[in-house]
Design goal:
Homodimer. By secondary structure, the protein is an alpha/beta fold. It has a single domain, classed as Cytidine Deaminase, domain 2 (3-Layer(aba) Sandwich). Helices cover 38% and strands 18% of the residues. The protein is built from 5 helices and 5 strands; from the N terminus they run αββααβαββα. A 5-stranded mixed β-sheet has the order 2-1-3-4-5. It starts with a helix and ends with a helix. 43% of the residues are buried. The mean pLDDT is 96.
């Protein structure tokens, strides 16, 4: 699966998160050969869990099925919105090779917008970052969600 195909799937997952009242963010973890290891959407509202971000849920599941314990060496995390500090940190700790995201998050992004956790030289692992994959679609989904939420 290509980054673009994975982002399309992440966008589908993100759209589904709205059904249970969650912010529409989706994530897919690809193995080194492009195979899908795991996928998830935000479930903070659904689970009542502040850590149930799409990235964390997908990384947990990928670690479970990957076969190398918690290390996701060679994997790519594909997510519709730039990861926050928690999710950026989780990607570093999981040792993913790449973080691919759609829309920038100037208010909480930790892959270059507000902070740059994933490329901090003080850390022992620094994933490659590819930003802007289907950014307009990702941003439009989020804007529509928050516009509708404010109208309530």
């Amino acid at each position: 699966m290509t980054d673009d195909e994975a982002m399309l799937r992440a966008l589908q997952l993100a759209a589904a998160a709205q059904e249970w009242g969650d912010t529409p963010i989706g994530a897919v973890v690809l193995g080194s050969g492009g195979e899908v290891l795991a996928e998830a959407a935000n479930e903070r509202e659904k689970r009542g869990d502040p850590t149930a971000h799409a990235e964390v849920l997908a990384l947990r599941e990928a670690a479970r099925v990957h076969g190398d314990g918690w290390r996701l060496t060679g994997a790519s995390l594909v997510v519709t919105l730039e990861p926050c500090t928690m999710c950026a940190g989780a990607s570093v700790l999981a040792r993913v090779a790449r973080v691919v995201y759609g829309a920038d998050d100037p208010k909480a992004g930790a892959a270059g917008s507000l902070w740059d956790v994933v490329r901090d030289r003080r850390l022992n692992h620094r994933p490659e970052v590819l930003a802007g994959v289907r950014a307009e679609e990702s941003g439009a989904l989020l804007r529509a969600f928050f516009r509708a939420k404010r109208a309530l």
